[in-house]
Design goal:
The protein is mainly alpha-helical and 978 residues long. It is built from 50 helices and nine strands. The strands form two sheets. The protein has a five-stranded parallel sheet, with helices on both faces. A four-stranded mixed sheet has the order 1-8-9-7, with helices on both faces.
Length: 978
Amino acid sequence: MTVEPGINERVRWGRPARLDRTGGGLLGREREARRIDGLLGGDGGPCLVLVHGERGVGRSAFLRAAGERLRARGTAVHAVDCVPGDAGQPLLLALRLVLALEGPHASGRTARALSAVDRRDPAAMEALLHDALARRAPVAVLVDDAEHADADSLAVLGRIEAPGVRLVVSAVRGNAPEPAPEDAREVVLLPLGPPDTAALIARWLRAAPDIDLARRVGESTRGVPGAVEALLAGWTDRGDIRIADGHAFLSARATLPVLPDDDRFVTALDRLGEHARAVAAALSVLAPLGEPALELTAAWTGLSPEAVGDGVRRLVEAGVVEEAGWAFTLALTAHTVRERLSPVQRSRLSAMAVGVLWAETDAATPGVAEEAGVAEEAGSPEKAGSPEKAGDPEKAGSPEKAGAPEETGAPEKASVPKKASSPEKAGVPEEASVLAYRADRIADAGNLVDRARAVAELTAVAERVRPGTDDRAVLRWLRATVVLTEGPARDSALRRIAGAAYLAGDYRAGRDIAESMLRNPGGTLTALELQHAACLLVSVTAGERDLRALSAMATARWWDELPVPVLAKVSGQTLALGHLTRWQEVRELLARTEAVWDTGPQARATPRCSRATADLMLGRPESFRRELALPDAPELAPDTLYALVVALFDLLAADGDLRAGRALLDARGLSAEVLPPLSRFLHHHLTGRWDQALEGARRLLANGDVLTPATDGLLLPARTAGILLARGRVTTARHVLESMRGPVSCSLHAAEAEVAMTLGDLTGAEETLRRGLEAAQAHALVFGTDELWALLAEVTAESGRTAEARVCLERLERISARSGSGRARLRYLLASARVLRDDDPDAARAGLVEAVELARSRALPFETATTLVTAAAAGACPVTVLHEAYDLFGDTGAGLWRHHTRTALRAAGLTVPGRARATAENDRLLATLLAEQLTNRQIAAVLRISEAAAANRLTRLFTRTGTRSRTQLVAAVLTGSV
C-alpha cells in the first residue's frame, strides 16, 4: 500500500506525524453493512437488530453510518446514546425516546410518560412508545451503548411490534438486551484484520505505515479501532511517529504509551471496583504463569481465592481479560495497568513470578540453583510478594503512574491456558516470547531475587538476541544488570549497556555512559575494554551527527585529558578522524603509534581496519584487500569480528563490489539479513531490490540515522536519491540531498549532479562536480572520485569541450588502474565511449564491448541495464539486449529508465512488450513528474523530448482521463481511478 504525497506538499523527510481523524467512511465493514441494510430494509414485520462487538470496535460509527443510509432512503431516524449511570433509573431510556418522538408540543403525552416513570409502570410506557413509533413509521430507533441502559426500558423495546418500525440496539459483547425477541437478528463487529488495520493507520496518519509500525499496532490493539486510535494518539503526542516520503515510521526508541485515566478502556476497568482492579493489576504481571497466577494473586492482594475468582469473572465479563489463560484482551490495556502500579508493587509481583519460573527450571534441571548460588527463598511469595510486603491490597490497582520502561515480552503474548503451570509448559508458539517474559520479570524484580542468577540470565538472554531485532529489549535487560551488579563486574556491565544503547539508537545514553567510563575508568576496566569504550563514544557521537564534538575528538588534546591507556586514545582519535574523512591523518597517526596498538589480535583489530580503510581512501588498496581475509578472525571476540565484517562489507558495497561482499559474508557464515539496517540498505540497493531499499532508507532518514559507518558518511541519502531519480521523482530526490550536509561525500555530489543533468542543467551539474572534486583533493581523497570524474567527462563532452573531457578521462583511467576497482573501470569505459564516439568510434565501441562483459560479471541489475542501453545505442552489441535491459529496469522499478528504453526499442524497430502496460506506465510517469511539480520545460528535459511534445502528451492525458487540473490528473492516475 502506498500513500502518495499531495501535489503541493513539499516532501519532508522525518517530520513528526499528526493524527487526522477527519477521514470519512468505514473500513473493513462492508459485509456487516450489507447485512444490516438488508435486515432494516425489508418489508416484513417488526425488526430488532442487535449490534455486538467488544469495546472500541467501532459500534457507534457503524450505527451512525447505518442511520445515514436509512435517512437517505426516507426513513426517520432517532438516535439515543446511553451513558454510565442510566441503568439505575428505571424507564429512563423509554422516556427519552417518547420525548424525542413526540417533540416539545405534545404536553399531554409528555405528562403521561413522566407519570409512567414515577409509577414505574412499564405497560403504560410501552403503550405510549408504541403509539409514538407507529404514528411516525417508517422510523428507526438507534440505541447505542445499551449495556448502560435500564433493564425496564430494554424490556419495553423488546416487546414493541409495529409495522415499519426498526429498532437497532448496540452493546458491548455479552451485554445484549434480555430477553431478546425470537425475530431479533444479530450483527457482530469483529476487530479489523491486518490489511484494514493498516488502512486505518494510513487514513489517520495520512501516510502508509511501515511494516514495523503496522505490526506493533496490530500486536498491541488486535485491530480494535478504538485502541488503534488511542495508541496512535499517544505516539503522535510524544512525537514517536515520523513521516518520510508519504510513509509513517515508529521511532526506534518508542515505547507503548500509558492510556490516560479518562480513556474508555481504563474507565471500563475502573468501574469494576477495587477487587477487580487489584486482580487485574496482578494478572498484568502474573497471567502467563498459568494456574499459579491465581494463587499468587490471592497472596499479593490479600483476597480470598473466592474473591479472586469473582474478580476474574468480572474482568472476563467486561472483556478486559480472556477466559482462557486470563491474558488481557488488549496488550495496550495490560501495559497501562502494569504501568499504573508503583515500582515497588511491580517489583514484588515480578519477584513472585521469577520464584515460580526458577522453581520449575530447578526442578527440571537439578543443581542449577546451587550452581547459581540462589537462596532457597529467592523470589518466593514469602520473600517477595507476601501481603505484608505488597502494601495495601485495596490500593493494588490504584492509578499510580510509574514511568518504567515498556514491557518487551508482553504477558498477553505469552498467555497460557488455565491448566498450564508455566510458559515453558504452555505450548507458547514462540520461544522468544517466553524468554522475553522471563527476562522482563527478572529485570522488574530487581534486588528482590538472587542478584547473581538474575545478572547471569539477563546477560545470557541479551546475548541471544540478534542485533537489529529487539534492541530496545536488550537495552532494558542490560540496564537491569547494572542495578544488580556491584564491584568490578559493574564496569563491564556498563560497557555492555553503552553498546546496547548504540544498537538501539539511543545515542545520547550510549554517549553519556561511554564518556563517563572514559573519564572515570576506575581500576577494573582493561585496556581492551577502554579501547572499546573509546570507539563506541566516537560512533555514538557520529550517530548524533555532532560534527563539532567529532572535530574535538579528532585531536590528541581532547584524549590527553582522559585517564585511559594510549591504546584507547589512539583508537578513538583514529576513528574520529575517519568519520571526518581525514584519512591522511589517520594513516600518519597509526604509523606513528603502531607499537602501541599492534600488540595482539583484539587490540589491533580496529586500528588495522582503520589503516586499511585509510589506504583505500587514499588510493592504495593493497592493505584493504589483505584485510578482507581477516587473518586474526579465529582469535577475535564474536562482537569484534562482526563489527569488522560489517565495516569491510560497507566498503565493498560503497564500491559496488557485490561479489566480494557476498564472499566476505559467506566466509564468516553470515547473510545479508543479519547485517545492520544501513548495510542491508546498501545490499538491497546493489541487488536491485529497490522497494525494500527505499523502505529501509525512509525509516533511517525519518529517524535521523544518516551517517553510515563506511567511507562515505552520506552514502545512504545519495543512493536513496539515485533510486528516486531513476523512478522519475526528481524533486523528491533533490529535497533528500538538500537536507544533507556533513563531511566530504563524493556520492552526494555525484547524486546532486545527476539530478541537475536529468533536468538539463549542465552548468549546475558541472559546478557541483567541481566542488566535490575540490573537497576531495583537499582531503587527498581518491576513493569515490571516479563517480565525479566520470560525470564531469560526460558533462564537458556534452557541452562540446572535448579537450577538457579527455583530461577527465585521463584522471579516471589513472584511478581505475591504481585502485583495481571494477566500478572505476566500468565508469572509465562508459565515459570513454561518450567522449570518443565522434573522434574514434571504433575505440568507443571496443570499450563498450568490454563494458558489457564487465557489467555482466559484476551482476548489478541497474548497472547492467544502463550499460546495455548505452552499448546498444552505440552499436557495440545487438539491439535485442534492449529487451533484457527493459526487464531489468522493470524489476528495479526504474520507471524513468524504462521509459527511455521504450524509446530506444521503438527507434530500433523492435516491439515494446505489453502495449497496454506500457501506456499505463507512461501515464504514471507523466503523473509522477507532475506530482513532483515540474514545469513543462523540466518535464521535457527529463523525458528527453521537446517542450512541445511534452505539452501534447499532457493534453492527451488530460483528455483521456477527463480531468482539468494537474491536481485532479495526478490523483486520478496515481490512485488508479482512471
